[in-house]
Design brief:
There is one protein chain. Helices cover 33% and strands 21% of the residues. The strands form 2 sheets. The protein has a 4-stranded antiparallel beta sheet with strand order 1-2-3-6, with no helix packed on it. The chain starts with 5 loop residues before the first helix and ends with a strand. It has 2 domains: 40 residues; 98 residues, Alpha-Beta Plaits, CATH 3.30.70. The protein has 4 helices and 6 strands; from the N terminus they run H-E-E-E-H-E-E-H-H-E. The protein is of the alpha+beta class and 145 residues long. It binds iron/sulfur cluster (2 copies). The site of one iron/sulfur cluster has 15 residues, from helix 2.
């Protein structure tokens, strides 16, 4: 008798299919995890992508982050006096204990409500240059929205 028993062939094929399905499932899971990691906004003061300190949050209505490039910031404090809502403070760089000069940060009390704190500076139409961004000669401040 030549050839294999149909029942055994079918069993092997089923096993192969299951193996491929589990492989695809694992790959999909890995891709989802990667995608989640890529989209995850950095936590406040977390360093990511160079020396950017990101402060803020993300929710259903958008991303609301202020990033401070701590390599560029020299701690001059101009952003502190320029912001009408006292968003910035200058102090010790907690992410870099060896750094000698102070650095600008977003004050703790503003980090979870930046959308609302900055709203007066960001009208829907004819948005003027942002006072904080304009004040920073080092070009260290950027906003995500
Ligand atoms: S104005 Fe710019 S350089 Fe000066 S403290 Fe603020 S972020 Fe830093
Ligand atoms: S946008 Fe206006 S309120 Fe927001 S940090 Fe800049 S100056 Fe302050």
């Amino acid at each position: 008798m030549t050839g294999s028993t149909p029942g055994i062939c079918g069993g092997v094929r089923d096993d192969n299919l299951r193996w491929w399905e589990s492989l695809l499932g694992a790959r999909e899971g890995a891709e989802q995890t990667l995608s989640t990691l890529r989209n995850k906004p950095p936590e406040a003061a977390e360093l990511g992508g160079g020396m950017l300190a990101n402060y803020g949050y993300k929710n259903g209505s958008g991303d609301f982050f202020i990033a401070i490039d701590t390599d560029k910031c020299d701690g001059c404090g101009d952003c502190v006096s320029a912001c009408p809502h006292d968003v910035f403070v200058v102090g010790e760089d907690l992410n870099d204990p060896l750094r000698d000069e102070p650095v600008a940060m977003v004050g703790e009390e503003h980090r979870k409500k930046l959308k609302y704190t900055c709203a007066p500076c960001k009208p829907d139409r004819n948005r003027p240059p942002l006072l904080c961004v304009q004040a920073c000669k080092a070009l260290a401040i950027s906003h995500s929205w």
